[in-house]
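Hello K.,

You asked for the raw outputs rather than the summary table, so here they are, unedited. I folded two proteins back to back in the same session to keep the settings identical. This is the first:
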Amino acid sequence: MAVFSLRFMLFSSLLLNFLLNLASLSDAKQSFRPKALVLPISKDASTLQYLTTINQRTPRVSLNVVLDLGGQSLWVDCEQGYNSSSYRPARCHSSRCSLAKSNSCSGTNTCGVIVDNTVTGTATTGDLGDDVVSIQSPDGSNPGRVVTVSHFLFACAPTFILKGLASTAKGMAGLGRTRISLPSQFSAAFSFHKKFAICLSSSTSASYNGVLFFGAGPYKFLPNVDVSTNNLVYTKLYINPVSTASAYTSGDASSEYFIGVKSIKVQDKAVSLNTSLLSIQSSTGYGGTKISTVDPYTVMETSIYKAVTKAFIKAAASRNITRVGAVSPFGVCFDLKTVHGTRLGASVPTIDLVMESESVKWSIYGANSMVQVNNEVICLGFLDGGSNPRTSIVIGGYQLEDNLLQFDLANSKLGFSYSLLGYQTTCSNFNFTSTA
């Protein structure tokens, strides 16, 4: 009898320990808070748009959405087969509507928000709601655990607003300065730093994705390259007091990201410019320099474009680079045979965007300035934006590729690397193929 009791007590003790350990593991799983999150970025060969994949709904559906750096929110097409048991409409006058700055209410007691296709400049109204979103957390230089946001706010859009987007796209993912953009919602959900970083790949191959980080670094790329704080140059981010969206409410500030370019140099020589165009006019919101992922190439106001290209052509001629006829949409092209290659792309004059001081400059080397259009011609990847554009300089996606850009929203500053080609890596070298 004593032996039976002893065995029973021993068994009970082991069972209790097992259950406690199981509960502890369950609690640890539930209480896991990632320090950062990560999404892949692909480049569509047809439209040159950058896309990411959002895992949404119950049951889960993977959606391709066009990445919009200055976009206000996540919006998706809800007219074509939106089925989810976890979807919740945002009722009029609720806190969710206030967060989204909604000022309209539908007959179904759902608040409406602006849905903006920034590729085509088309806008409409969509219903605000929330649903489950799943996203991966990074573990060093690898993908880690998948985590879930149960009530992620987004806008339901009609199908017609997809026109002009990549054929696989079901909406757009906004990373802009709003309280319902992806960076704001993810940082609020997991209480991490209100920062995000983008690294766009120059490749259109499905095997070579760029990467989008939410949260602070490290930002690790193969082979063991950490593009962290020490490798970034910082400059101030500016807020345009007038919205640059296709449709907006009077008094709204822009959700896009502006930087303070003070001058432009070509091969270390300052270009003569009308510098008033480089500042944002507080009354109209015109002028200034913004960063865009929906513009495939950098676009400049006509007088700036002419001054920069004139200086570039002169500097290229001094290197015996032969100019040839323009190839649309580019205005300045060269004979490829007269251009040598380097680790940083074509050996051409460097273009520097100089900000608050001579030491804070964004240097654009051949890999980001020159576009090979065929086997014989290479062109300067800058476009003429006309004589009175909304924004004087729009830095486009091609100029961002293989450069890491960190947006620190809490401190309103941009950290940018020089071309990662100089570190002997690229934006496609984050390891998405293995799990921790």
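The second followed immediately with the same parameters:
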Amino acid sequence: MRTVSLFTGAGGLDWGFRSLGFNTVIGIDKKLDAAETFSRNFGIPISKGPLLKAGYYSVGDVSQSKLEAPIPPPAVLLGGPPCQDFSIMRGVDQERGGTQTLRGKLYLHFARYLAVLKPLAFVFENVPGLLSSNSGKDISTILEDFTNLHRLPEQWRRQYEAKPHQTPPPPEDLISEANRGDIPSYQIVFSDVVDASWHGVPQRRKRLLIIGFREDLPVRMDHILAIKEALAGSPALRKYPLTALEALEGTILPELREIYREIVSEYSGLFSGDDPVSDYLRLHKGKPNDPLFDQAIEEHEAVIRLLGWKGRSLTSAPSDAFPDGSHTPPREQEAVLARMKQIPPGENHKAVRGTEHEVEGRGFSLIYRRLHPLLPAYTVVAHGGGGTWGYHYRRSRSRLTNRERARLQSFPDTFWFEGKTSKVRSQIGEAVPPLLSLKIAEVMQSILEDVREAELTS
């Protein structure tokens, strides 16, 4: 099975599909550094410019792109357009332009390639803020456009004529498909928010997923229920998620008693105990001898082994353990180091209000927020200064390295990053957690194989 990937980045959404044997035949993104990372890990050469060539990752603008030549319909079209104009981190609604902005309208090009490529299925990803942007009108518009692609050329033309400065002209390939009357219809089978921690990612990261199948395919109700069940995650992991401590130290909680006690000793009086299992159960409102906890620990172990973290502590690993430079300790100002020594695990800049370390005008909760060792990480972000980099749970440590961020995003240790530190940070923060993409890919593969078999026997 083959995939086409739009807004590809470093390949977080593609990783799960490639792990199951899907072949990425086309990728595109504006960022050369992300393309180089993808090329290094997926073995696909780079092509400069927006012309989409089979077998290449194009470095160019999706809105200016077109196919070099027709290709057979891929199994799945993947993509997560830029989310900034939908994100609640933009602040007040007036600053969340959504589909009223040029960047917010990039979803139209995902819809265009649905019409042009005619994939069997698609996976569209974005932030949960898309559900509320423009008072909920944006999500309604996007779902309507995905399910009524035959109307898209005319709607696109009307938008362009009304607001040419906010809408690009309708592309020729879309008009050609409309003139031939060959635009497919799609059934939306899933449209909901999924938390990556439900699937073993050591990070609370919620993403909106929209999944659809071509209407001419024999997709049954049991297929739709299978998707919902799969994306609901593991009951054990929903109650007992993988922790930052396990991810960064490379093993499960029962094997981390000594290291945990070292961490507790750095914060005298702030922890209720010094046993990671007992403290974890207390924190997650669990009970001793809970079979669900035992199952969760088995699933933690499976994730750690799958991603190549087992027995490999990043806290003690030297920077040259990763030749791509992703584990190089960052340089930091003395003021930041002094401030972080006063911020306990799980807390942020508010912990130093009224002291010499106070930071003025900082309203976001992630500012100078330190990881809690017994919780999943908070959302790893791609951009920003002023305390947004993410901070280690050890008092003797401050800012996270890119490799530590990569683990919190569930990248395997074998994943090689290309680019400067800030560029790699963006690649990691903008990615769909690879482990979440694997869970999506597993259920998609199962349904597509079932559909193929049904068509062959009909």
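The radius of gyration is 23 Å.

Happy to rerun anything if the numbers look odd on your end.

Regards,
P.
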